[in-house]
Structures are given as structure tokens and as C-alpha cells.
Amino acid sequence: MIPHKQWAKALHQSARTQQPRDQFSTQNTYTLKDAYTIQHALIQERVNEGHAVIGVKMGFTSLAKMKQMGVDDMIIGQLTQDMRITSETPLVRSQCIHPRAEPEIAFRLSQDINSPLSVDEVSHVVDGVASAIEIIDSRYENFKFSLEDVVADNCSSCGFALGPWCEVPLGLNGLDMVQTFDGSTVAEGTSDAILDNPFEALAAATRLALQHGLPLKKGMIVLAGASTAAHFIGDAKKVEVAVDGLGTAYFEVV
Ligand code: OOG
Ligand code: MG
Question: What are phi and psi of 20, to 5 degrees?
Fold first, then answer.
């Protein structure tokens, strides 16, 4: 028997103390279903601290990300209120282990979703699209994990920053996405890298959320997954992602 709750508590403790831990998969065999059960228990730890679930994040929706991390399937994790980075609540470097930033696109849901939707249907259930930056910070040593390990660890999620909400465009193809650290470009990609069309990531999110029991409610945020490999934040103080036609997401590191 996998001690789901105990592993969730250990991962939560790693996040709260900035102490990375060993991967579970080196000593144990466990299933993806176990991994999502651990993720749910891990999110419950945050909810118990008073942080509500405000959305979901897709992972490994681009080849660049799969290659970088050596995995080959899409995953889904959850976003809680304390992960939101704004000008009033910047990223606190000392609260992270080895944070990386990656360029993303965010959707805001205009209604509750209770069934999987097709790519043609999803644009009707969003009332905003924004440029976004995700900060990932694996709780495992050296940012190394199996697919099960990373799902259990809520898909490495640590924080996210959003640009201004924009009207939902007819298409999201061919948009340049540029990430800079202190004004220097560190990653450049295109929105096509996200499953050929970021709306596909949203459709996949409706499917995976239903499959793994994650809520998708009106007003929630869905991160589509990064279009490029992630980059260590290092000593950078200002992180920015500009997406063609969607404006700029930005945050400071203190
Ligand atoms: C897992 C999270 C993947 C993405 O956008 O593909 C992810 C990781 O790379 O540590 O957030
Ligand atoms: Mg991501």
C-alpha cells in the first residue's frame, strides 16, 4: 500500500521548508492513479492553510518541455491562491528551492465545466485570455522525477503571474512568445508549440480534469503549458513574458 497522505505531507513539508527530497519512484513502484491521489492530498494541505483552489495547469503540452524533462505524456495540476504572483506579492526567492520560469498562455473560464469539450467548443467557455509566466520548483533533488513523481508533486507548480486579460481571439496560432530575465532574452517560442494550438491544451484540460476529479468552475484559470523549455531564475530580479497580441506578464523576485 502506498501511504498517499504521508507522501503528500512530505512533499508539502519540502515546499514549505525549501528542503528537496528523494524521488519516490527510485524506491517504490506506484501508479499514475496513486500519483493523482497524492496530488489531491497535497492540495488539501494548502486548502487547510486557507488557500483556495483557483485553477489548473497543464504540463508537457509542448515537445520542448517533454524533451527537457524526459517524459512523454500530458499531466494536470492545481493552482491555489497563494501561488498567484502580483506586484503586491512578488516571488520570494528564499521560499523557493530551485525555481524555473516558463512562458505560458492563460485562460479564464466563463462557466462551470462538467464534461470534456472539443477544441471547437472550448472558446465558448472562456471570457479572457492572457500572457502568463509559470514558476515551477520541483520538490525533488536536482529537478529529477518520473511521470508519477511529478504528478504527485502537483506538477512542480510554485507560482504564476498573469498579463492583462484580453478578449478571446478567434485563433491563438502563430503568436511569438518571448521570455526575458532583467531585459535579456532567455527563451523564444511560438504558441504553435503548445499542442499546435493552445485551445487544444484547454480541451485536454477539460478531459484530464474530469478524469482525475479536479474542479473546473466559472472564474477559474487554466494554464496551457509552456511553449519552450523552462529556465532557472538564478539571480534574475525581473521576469517578463511577452506574447504577440496578448501583452506582457511580469513579476519581480525579492
Ligand atoms: C513539470 C511541469 C511542466 C509545463 O508547462 O509543461 C509544466 C516540470 O517541468 O517540472 O508546467
Ligand atoms: Mg508550466
Answer: -65, 155
Q: Which ligand is nearest to the CA of 154?
A: 1
- Cell numbers given for 128: 479572457
Atom of ligand 1 nearest to the CA of 62: 6
The count of C-alpha atoms lying within 13 angstroms of the C-alpha of 167, restricted to the half-sphere facing its C-beta, is 2
Rounded-to-integer distance, Cα 222 and Cα 111, Å: 13
**What pTM was estimated for this model as a whole?**
0.98
| Predicted confidence (pLDDT) per residue in 207-239, tens digit | 999 999 999 999 999 999 999 999 999 999 999
Phi/psi class of residue 17: alpha, beta or left (left: φ > 0; alpha: ψ in -120 to 50)? alpha
**CATH for 4-252 (3.30.920.30, 3.90.850.10, 1.20.1250.20, 1.20.1560.10):** 3.90.850.10
Count CA atoms closer than 13 A to 102's CA, side-chain side. Answer: 32
Residue ranges lining ligand 1, Cβ < 6 Å: 57, 59-60, 65, 69, 102, 134, 136, 138, 150, 155-156, 225-226, 230
pLDDT 10s digits, 110-156: 999 999 999 999 999 999 999 999 999 999 999 999 999 999 999 99
Contact 236, 182 (CB under 8 A): yes
DSSP character for 139? Answer: S
> Rounded distance, CA 247 to CA 15, Å?
31
Distance, in Å, from the CA atom of 136 to the CA atom of 62, rounded to the nearest integer, reads: 15
Cα–Cα distance measured from residue 235 to residue 81, given in angstroms and rounded to the nearest whole number:
25
Nearest alpha carbon, ligand 1 atom 7: 59
